[in-house]
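TEACHING EXERCISE
Course module: macromolecular assemblies
Task: Read the component lines below, then compare them to the predicted structure of the full complex.
Student: A.B.
Group: 4
Components provided:
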Amino acid sequence: MNEKVFRDPIHNYIHVNHKVIYDLINTSEFQRLRRIKQVPTTAFTFHGSEHSRFSHCLGVYEIARQVIGIFEQDYRNIWNADESLLVMVAALLHDVGHGAYSHTFERLFETDHERYTQEIITSPETQINTILRQVAPDFPDKVASVINHTYPNKQVVELISSQIDCDRMDYLLRDSYYTAAHYGQFDLTRILRVIRPIKNGIAFARNGMHAVEDYIVSRFQMYMQVYFHPASRAMELLLQQLLKRAKELYQEQPSFFEQSSPHLLPFFKKEQTLADYLALDDGVMNTYFQSWMHSSDVILSDLASRFINRKVFKSVTFDEKDEDKLEVLRKYVAQVGFDPNYYTGIHVNFDLPYDIYRPEKAEPRTQIEILQKDGSLAELSTLSPIVRAISGETYGDRRFYFPKEMLSEDDLFADIKKSFQAHLNNEHFIGN
Amino acid sequence: MNEKVFRDPIHNYIHVNHKVIYDLINTSEFQRLRRIKQVPTTAFTFHGSEHSRFSHCLGVYEIARQVIGIFEQDYRNIWNADESLLVMVAALLHDVGHGAYSHTFERLFETDHERYTQEIITSPETQINTILRQVAPDFPDKVASVINHTYPNKQVVELISSQIDCDRMDYLLRDSYYTAAHYGQFDLTRILRVIRPIKNGIAFARNGMHAVEDYIVSRFQMYMQVYFHPASRAMELLLQQLLKRAKELYQEQPSFFEQSSPHLLPFFKKEQTLADYLALDDGVMNTYFQSWMHSSDVILSDLASRFINRKVFKSVTFDEKDEDKLEVLRKYVAQVGFDPNYYTGIHVNFDLPYDIYRPEKAEPRTQIEILQKDGSLAELSTLSPIVRAISGETYGDRRFYFPKEMLSEDDLFADIKKSFQAHLNNEHFIGN
Amino acid sequence: MNEKVFRDPIHNYIHVNHKVIYDLINTSEFQRLRRIKQVPTTAFTFHGSEHSRFSHCLGVYEIARQVIGIFEQDYRNIWNADESLLVMVAALLHDVGHGAYSHTFERLFETDHERYTQEIITSPETQINTILRQVAPDFPDKVASVINHTYPNKQVVELISSQIDCDRMDYLLRDSYYTAAHYGQFDLTRILRVIRPIKNGIAFARNGMHAVEDYIVSRFQMYMQVYFHPASRAMELLLQQLLKRAKELYQEQPSFFEQSSPHLLPFFKKEQTLADYLALDDGVMNTYFQSWMHSSDVILSDLASRFINRKVFKSVTFDEKDEDKLEVLRKYVAQVGFDPNYYTGIHVNFDLPYDIYRPEKAEPRTQIEILQKDGSLAELSTLSPIVRAISGETYGDRRFYFPKEMLSEDDLFADIKKSFQAHLNNEHFIGN
Amino acid sequence: MNEKVFRDPIHNYIHVNHKVIYDLINTSEFQRLRRIKQVPTTAFTFHGSEHSRFSHCLGVYEIARQVIGIFEQDYRNIWNADESLLVMVAALLHDVGHGAYSHTFERLFETDHERYTQEIITSPETQINTILRQVAPDFPDKVASVINHTYPNKQVVELISSQIDCDRMDYLLRDSYYTAAHYGQFDLTRILRVIRPIKNGIAFARNGMHAVEDYIVSRFQMYMQVYFHPASRAMELLLQQLLKRAKELYQEQPSFFEQSSPHLLPFFKKEQTLADYLALDDGVMNTYFQSWMHSSDVILSDLASRFINRKVFKSVTFDEKDEDKLEVLRKYVAQVGFDPNYYTGIHVNFDLPYDIYRPEKAEPRTQIEILQKDGSLAELSTLSPIVRAISGETYGDRRFYFPKEMLSEDDLFADIKKSFQAHLNNEHFIGN
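Instructor-supplied answer key:
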């Protein structure tokens, strides 16, 4: 095939040389990713980050392609070129099961985008499966097994998911570019120069350790400063409350939802198929929410309107030990006239920026190995003081959300609001 | 008001110091721009350019704010600070009437986004109008008159629309950043240093002429290389044919469209209101197109599917004199089984990169004036050889579009396709 | 004065609005900084970093100018505008006493660039002093006192030197740009938005803490990865040995040095004046070294040639406890024919990335204060987990340097070299 | 050889895989380029552009290496891999004969950096020649013939010098980065994707024509806005007058110059050798000029001081027809006390941004060929309207320089200066 290229702000160009890759990009399941934002709630805070999963998936593929190119050229003795296409395909498709507002949606409807990724790859009814089967009858299963970590060759698995994989490398650079929060930048070129296939996985040459270190720190900063931003989490919580209200209301008013949001019905009834899932995207969901703004249920219509028109909840942090005491805040919210079941909520975000391999854990991490001059391996945090300083610990906060109206002062409820505000200091909840 | 800021990839931060501006941003009419892409068909070619009108409008406002800040500080004798808020508001709202896929939509439904902009500003039913009226009863009309060029102070009008206005400056930088086509970059900082209010408009100091020159060249290159890209225009044409088919079919099958695309009905019936217009956005339109993919009408469902799944038409350029001869190509297309009324089309794109003021023209341009050391003005192209070289001329091409299938060779229609292809050379139509 | 601007890659433009600043830039003492590299030995490793002290000093001034502009506009109640010019002048001149290869030079000749800075400012024989006296007779002394930290207003002093001052902010951004080691980038715009004058110094608003955090991390990474680069330190060590040899040789062969390096004589004799110091710059020093390449002393000529032609020493790290054992390596170096007094050396580099204020220390740090919503201050590391993780600790290493020839194998001394190499593993010295 | 890399701001990394290349970089003749600025007089105007010929030469090599890599991989049928090393070496060495302030120096001393480049490559006394001879006895001559355009394979020659060669591509990007004049940026990645070896030279695929177009425009803008900047040319002219004075004065006072500027003597006497030429660099020349500041000749010492301390001459443009009339200005300059032979001068700068091949010309250009889909070639300006608009024409201006003092007003010579100024308007000389 003649090489095709896609102009890309992160990698300059995405290069496609395999017909399989090109055909996969052109399937309806993959093109659908154009209609799903990469960070949909973050975009309400960082307006620039309106990019889609489509762009991200191309980017992950491109990083994988570059890694493979280096492995094939310089490490033929230890890298099996027969695995190359598999890596590129798995990179391209690793997120193909992502849906509209996935994280919130999954919580409410007990779905799982990773299971959908598996299904899209292995179900004979998809265009993607048809193309993969043309490579080899067992190729779809192979791709699926790479994505769910069961593929035997750890070199392949770790390129797609580990503490420093193609997925994370692309999203840090991309989200950084689009949000304009430059913290996520790191030296990808250098990492590509020092990445090495080793016997049972992936390592990085010692002379590039600083680039790996910088990647860990960048990732940490993106979590603290972008992904955990209080306003974005407010929008997540609002969406959660909106879907919860709709799900409950459906029992009473099914016909309203049949009219206004047909493709959500199977989810309300817990009888959804793959086709139902694929029918949903950001635009479809927002179209439904816009219909709900005209519902006769005041809570549904108000929450929908707040979401569509970006009326963010406000929040304060609180200490874990004080969680029970938050009831006092909920009480004031209710007194002002907001049902606290829908108008307040707790959002907890914690991240473990890096950890060594701990076999006793439920999901042990694959630690990052540094390849030294004499051929021995050393785990990253034994060499890097800065990684050591942040590894093994989680960082984040607990937030209590409530309507912005609780912070205004000029109305009938001024006294109640004052009492409410008396519990807050420097945006933190004072428990006593 | 405490200053609010929005992180922005182009201007680093958007600064908001006026409550009026902040309230306008928070209206439902303005938040709606988040759901409308800035360059929706371009995004099918340059996948990175998924940014919205919302981002662009904030950017235009920010440039205006910076210009005004300089005028207020350094040119008080000639700049009236009472006009400052007006400029910022007009900059923010100049595009507020843009709708989903505006350019194509307007052609089909004889609507006009500029008229909608006027209406959103002046109609008492909008949130925007309510806020503007709080400034002064005649403020909405003033804002509207700036945008439609009838406001008497030309300084104000030219900042919002002229050959080098805040709108163009933002979209060149922004589209350039998001498409990754760096041609659109120019030195905004320098231009801000040399922009000057003059008696009857806006000028640029002589020592910054090269930055203005570079802006003109950048704009020219963005048109040639990004906005006029054949693949994006293919998607525009496809959309046009899809909407045309829907409009015709509505006469026969109204109930299908009542179900599948309720908010388009008023447009089919030519009885739309402002509320109808505001109900449409990219997500709503795409949701409709996705429904149409299940229509019983094969042309409608196929065109919808081609649009949603990005199956671009191919094209060749042709000379104006050969337009009549294109019938031969349409004939072959029909023989292969595609109705040429829907599966072929002509797309003509021409741009006049810069022109002097020509009062005899229907829409004369406001030429760019350079302010010389002795206080006299000189029109840009008299000083700049490169602007002179491209001014007054239009650049662009005429393209004939057809299904990609006409270029394949391996089927029943191989002979017809070969005859078709015999008329093409180096992607150009050979008339004879 | 009409504003003058200097195009600058870091700040886009340097703006000069005060005649005093413009005149200072045009003095011979300040123009001399064009001939002194900012990071002369680093440039041997990162070839891009060939920028001068001149560029850096303009940059420090520009940051100071921007800070002052914000203070004057928004914090008039607490910032005294009479201090503004003082801050800008101190920022511009804080490094004016830097000389050629300062750090190494000072060690050898017991000079001190900070004392020269004071002298250039206060000595009546300089052009700089003449200009400063025109502002006010005591102005030179005021400027000098800001730079040596004795000026009573801590707001002024901390802008010029503290753990986050205009000097450091410029050099991190600038050295990062020129070396292409992007680690040094941080969000200056954000820091400028949240910097605040407080009663007794400078603080940063809570909502910008992440930018301050990122600055600390960036600075840390630049030290670890750029400033402490082993190859640059090799060049420093080589220069040190070269100057040591010259100084010793001068006693024996004064006439050679009178001919080849006249402006160094006063330093050899310890009778240098300010004029002697100002006569030296990188070009003059290199011209001397080039002359020394023709010396009859083989050590002098060889070391000069190695320096001029960038023949870097190699190095290994070693543990503090093993320092005495390095003698074994020196012995092998001597056996191969290199005098270890000149051809080996130890270079120790440690940095304390951040620390709280510790009054018991010899040079206590001014800790970074974060201004909270309720007006209270909190020390940075109490709020930032990542700063806490690295604060109060020093990072760096000890290196033993030796001629690259010790690592080759193909000659007469192969056995000695093998014995030498047997003490090294993974670029570390094995003591036992 | 293990790959070596150099961190580079333009190309991210310079990759060296051939021992020959690495050894050439480490020669004293090549390392000497670290001490020669790429744009020495431009750095007086754009202070950021302090980069050296060393950096540029590495960059030209890196572009060549990338081109060759593509040719070897994709165009084996038409590209002979035996030529690859030759291209890389010629790219690396094409400027190795550049000396301190070459352009001005050559004019005064009738030397020629291109001839020195040839000599450094072919003279058996250089380290470079020794390394080249190890490749093959005739390799030095081959390299030299590529650089002087006589090598028979035009593919090789055009990569090194043509209207779009590796040299120009690097210096535009590099000078643009360091000056911060972004006009010089163009899409190198795209150009590398479309560059093709053809039978008798180099061409560019049709689908990358816009990148070539943008390169031509960028180059044009860099000439107009950076290289032809009046202040930089003022410094060139000043240097020229300084050297002229020195050369004349040498006849009278040889001993002063023997002391102060020994390595210039052979040039004054026209008996210089290659070794003499290599002994000069920016630092050596500036050291000499600093000595001349103490000359008893007032003109020499004043001009030296003006150059070292950057006292730029001012200038006005003039029309060619008025050149004779400039005598009136010189007369006034003399009346004020400046010898017009040294204190005034004419500087003419013109550039032909692009031209087709014109065999009748003394130095015909190699026109840029575009490779079309059907394999035919088309000359660039036949396809590109913007290149056509500027091709075949020269752009630039003529300037008359004089001391800045002529523009002040407040002294004894006020009347003479007024008469002088009466001949100037908008920085242009009025002839009548």
